[in-house]
Amino acid sequence: RGRIGGRVLLWCALVAVWEVSWGQLRYSVPEEMQKGSFVGDIAKDLGLELSSFRDRGARVVSEGRRQYFSLHEKTGHLVTAGRIDREQECGRLVEKCVLRCEMIVEGEMKVYAIEVEVRDINDNAPSFREAEMELKVSETTVPGLRLPLSIARDPDIGSNSLQRYELSGDEHFSLAVQTAPDGEKRPELVLAKVLDREEAAFHDLVLTALDGGDPAQMGTAQIRVVVLDANDNAPMFDQAVYTVRVPEDVPAGTVLITVSATDADDGVNGEVKYVFQIISETASDTFQINTDTGEISLLGELDFEESSSYELEVQTRDGGGLFDTAKVSITVTDVNDNVPEISVRSLLSAVPEDSPSGTVVALLHVQDHDSGANGEVKCSLDKGLPFRLRSSLGSYYSVETSRELDREAVSEYNVTVRATDGGSPALWSSAVLALRVLDVNDNAPVFAEARYIAWLPENNAKGALVLTVRAWDADWGENARVRYRLCEGQVRGAPLSSYVSVHAETGALYALRSFDYEEVREVGLWVRAEDGGAPALSSNVSVRLLIVDQNDNAPQVLYPPPASSGTGAVAGWTGVELAPRSAEPGTLAGVSVTRWLVVAVAAVGFLLVAFLLVLLALRLRQWRRSRLLSAGSGTLRAVPASHFVGIEGVRAFLHSYAHDVSLTADSRKSQLGCPGGSCCNTLPAAPPPDKCAPLLLPEETS
Length: 702
Known about the structure:
Potential calcium-dependent cell-adhesion protein. May be involved in the establishment and maintenance of specific neuronal connections in the brain. Helix content is 12%, strand content 37%.
């Protein structure tokens, strides 16, 4: 054992070839290495920096229940997670023992397959299942008889496995070794000299099995040969090879097959017994044989996934020590007794809602220990979800988004992955992936109303609440936090912020000054709601503030004006108004004269309008006559123009009727005057003509 330990340490210093191809790493290590022993430098082999390697969340997982390897956090090396016994993991029938695992880089959602070959070391010595054997041989047996002996087992392989047998102890016997078709060496005891029971009733021998290790290890078995009286016939099996196919789900205690042998002798020499001559340690725990009947029954449980076939060798012996052997081949058929197993190797607990389609959120490993159609697994997801499955490396599946997510519509998903095998009836299993959708600032605040109108009485107190605007944001957390502020503006040349303000958190609008309806009757402004995202999103709303008039002004006397101390036109007004004697009771004093003056002015205006209308009619009449005169071939061409009233006459009329009107605040001083040199009833006389104008034109008199 000390020398073996030295060889283990030597193997620890030797690491075989590693290879990186198609996302796969290969290493080779000897068995029986201590926990934490170096296997390979994964970080270096993948070309990753050590710090980056750690930050990306790399880890190693193994198929099955046992974890053979782990990842050293500080160095990035692949190391053993415990001692690995090649014989226990792979058995002696497997020439190349390969353990598989995967390295998952969660930061990249990538999987790298790792294969580690476990090399054999000479850590097992050959051993016999029976440390002591007893053989019975008749003294009449002629030399050359061959008696099969128990074979030795060495779990090691290659040169470290069983290589040869040696026999010591007696000259009556020699050793012969036969090689079976499968390469197994089977020792036989050969009778070299005639036995004489009277000379020696038994012979003690030592059978030694040796392997090819350096140094070689060995195992021994004690053999006692008992010399019997004559036994003429040996028992014989009715078949050289027995075969049977058994489903793996047969219950314990079931008889699988019965072997049968007969012996022609009588008495004790004709009685046969059955025993397992060659049987593996696993088979000895699984099967048993009835020594009297030859029934081979199931002792434990069969598992196709652990072993699909068994090869047994049964020996029958009679009472005289003669024997025969037969082979029993048991084939285990697969039954769909394993449900598919789903292992979540990597999972994102949360994903941003703006993640692009195809974002990987989970890595799954699916396996079914059954074989054939029973072990073929199909995976599926519930319909209607924004996710899909994609086959990855080997039995790996990736769960990825099939479209963009919307947290405001669905904030959490429970994604059920179902794995179904191809058996009949099919078996299935499921795994639920809980996934949160992280908020992204993709919604602007929305006001409760499209526009706001508020009424504020004038003369309000400073700081009075006008109204409250309210906006909501469909996002979550800081992205949904809404703050309010005023948009820039002016009122009567002053900044809007000097008139009103808005509370950033509540949206309450306050008046910063007292409004006067007679100065400002309406204020229009915009309030902006902005969320806390980066970058922030915002929206605006119109607010119309109407100032309501209040009875805050007393009536003002415009007439009569108040007395002044200056020398103006109203200085000296005594505040006394005269009323005519004919005034009736209830007549307003100080306006009986003014009222008549207003009536007079109105009458003059009416007369002026009437005169203009008459003048227009005369002008139209004159125009009509001129048309008629032109049509009458110039009959009146000799009449002088002065005999007709024209524009000059009109002007004379207007001049004669011109008035001078003078109005004062004092009704007693109002005057109506007419200019001299005119009379209301006459037109200004035209100077007499020097001679009468002829009635006919000169053409006509001639």
